[in-house]
Amino acid sequence: MAGDFRALVVTKDEAGYRCEDKRITDADLMDGEVTVRVSHSTVNFKDGLAITGKSPVVRKFPLIPGIDFAGVVETSTDARYKPGDAVILTGWGVGETHSGGYAEKARVKADWLVPLPKGLTAARAMAVGTAGFTAMQSVMALEAHGMTPADGPVLVTGASGGVGSVAVSILARLGWHVIASTGRTSEAEYLTHLGAKEIIDRAELSAPGRPLGKERWAAGIDSVGSLTLANVLSMTRENGAIAACGLAQGMDLPTTVAPFILRGVALLGVNSVTAPYAKRVAIWNRITSDLDMTLLDGLSHTIGFDEIMPTARAILEGKVRGRTIVAIG
Ligand code: NDP
Asked: Which domains does the chain have, with CATH numbers?
């Protein structure tokens, strides 16, 4: 059909939940002021959940998954954007309640877009994606709490994953002594290359522990949740802070108040999805200035449209290292 283009479409009906590779037209896109010709997307943990249906992150059907994309404006009825502008989108429920990045075109609200920062290509923006954006947001949450490298080591959990890899890279460049927790100790060389000074086996943190343990780090970025986060808190130094952004182990948090009331530890929540525009621009500017682009290239790899679905399954099995760029166009 003239004007049709490629898209992944998630459907849920009597036949069940499924994600299919289809040809669609502009009429199949959802409402929005800006239509973007998508050049790149990425595969985050949440995209894995959306494509497989393992968790109910998709809440409108049919829907194009893909929580992030980068591309060039094709048409816009909003004065802030004109055809040819390079833009990025992360979050805002795109790929969950509004069609997202796994298509050659996307139509979204102008409010959700951010201009592609100077110094960043569309591919590198997607190497960062929601995961890298969240890593920087977490770093900035620790800084806003007053934490500095002089306070002591910082722990990063899920270190070989997307959030973790970018967090390790940024923190090391900012001068932190980074302790990386990973289940893939075979990735020690990779994590050391990104800047980690110590590697610990995540098994040390993933089983039930004591309300308070030996003080091991001043700060942390946790993308794992559950027992891991409880243990991370219990081993945080007095007046330290942990930024919690993920749930790779689980959504529960079986902790006690001991770290908070006996050590003054702060638990800082990080939600990238609805971060307001000014904060987004500030985060992207920090990414451009504080993330080593050579390291970013080294921790990311590029796949084509055909590999989105297998990669989505692999990320849920903890088999994807670093970040994945999807070349869409
Ligand atoms: P990845 O799958 O790339 O990374 C997660 C990492 O967690 C894995 O690589 C693995 O690291 C570790 N892990 C996986 N399973 C377990 C387990 N059962 N127990 C302990 N560790 C485990 O995902 P992302 O980096 O994209 O996302 C990480 C988390 O952050 C997800 O839960 C995601 O939903 C959340 N997130 C939240 C955001 C927010 O706005 N708050 C935004 C982005 C992500 P290793 O092999 O090194 O141990």
From this structure: 5-116+299-327 (3.90.180.10), 130-269 (3.40.50.720)
